[in-house]
Amino acid sequence: MDTRPIGIFDSGLGGLTAVKEILHLLPNENIIYFGDTGRVPYGTRSKETIIKYAKQDIAFLQSKQVKMIIAACGTVSSAAGHIGNALPLPFTGVVKPTAQAACLATKNQRIGVIGTTATIKSGSYKQAIHEINPGIQVFMQDCPLFVPLVENGFTSPDSEIVLSVIRHYLQPFQQADIDTLILGCTHYPLLYHAIKKVMGKDVFLVDSGRETAVYATYLLEKQNLRSNNNKKGSCTFYVSDSIEGFTQSANIFLQKNTAKTVAYIDIEAFSQNLTKK
């Protein structure tokens, strides 16, 4: 039994989609979450900047003696996922588990991928899908306004603002006859119902947060790192900007009061020199 916490990080609120699923799948695990709200979004940054931020985020989580790190961020997973290879503990991003789920889901071998500009430019999802099945056709679209929508609380499927932005970006997929759509940023599941409304019931949406949580569960079991504790786990949240703004959104999404479990940290104080194998 290993009662050390699981470390999860994202550029802001999006990684809470993975937290929510892990709370469901692994209710006895302790979680430490870092949302880099002071530097969100990552998706419009250069690869060098994304790598720098990711290393600092990981260094912070390592300082908390976590047993596993999850990059619950499509941008980091796509542009900087390789930095987890040298860590002395299990590490996963969102690309691999999400691509695997999409390949299993598609019936007509036509998959759409939406993500931040950095994620789409990296081609990470297309590469991961083709490593599994090179015969699948992949259609990609960056959606740079989705993260600001989510971070500012615009997620309702009844909002014409939200639906208008989604229609703008997803129109090419409706012409491409896809049957599966990867929500390639962990912010995007917060727009799930609005995206579903635009794409229709015949297109299966792959939730990157959920698939990452399922894969993380598999890794913990494989390496005998499950807590197996009868006591309910705890969640501690850290942010690099306003506690109040994060808490308000986290309370709504997780449907629990996080006010006493959120703290501010100066992420710039953490070195990029990671603890390695």
Q: How does this structure look, described?
A:
Helix content is 42%, strand content 16%. By secondary structure, the chain is of the alpha/beta class. Strands 4-3-1-2-9-10 form a 6-stranded parallel beta sheet, with helices on both faces. It has a 4-stranded parallel beta sheet with strand order 6-5-7-8, sandwiched between helices. The protein is globular, with a radius of gyration of 18 Å. The protein starts with 5 loop residues before the first strand and ends in a 13-residue tail after the last strand. 47% of the residues are buried. The mean pLDDT is 94.
Helices and strands, with pairings:
Blueprint: E1 6-10, H1 16-25, E2 31-35, H2 47-62, E3 68-71, H3 74-79, E4 91-92, H4 95-105, E5 110-115, H5 117-122, H6 124-132, E6 137-142, H7 146-151, H8 160-176, E7 180-183, H9 192-199, E8 204-207, H10 208-222, E9 235-239, H11 243-254, E10 262-264
Parallel strand pairs: 1-2, 1-3, 2-9, 3-4, 5-6, 5-7, 7-8, 9-10
Structural class: alpha/beta
**Which spans of ≥5 residues are poorly predicted at pLDDT below 50?**
none
Give the H and E element order.
EHEHEHEHEHHEHHEHEHEHE
Q: Could you state the oligomeric state of the chains shown?
A: single chain
Strand arrangement, major sheet: 4-3-1-2-9-10
Query: Helicity range of the residues?
Result: 40-55%
The total of beta strands comes to 10
Amino-to-carboxy terminus distance: 22 Å
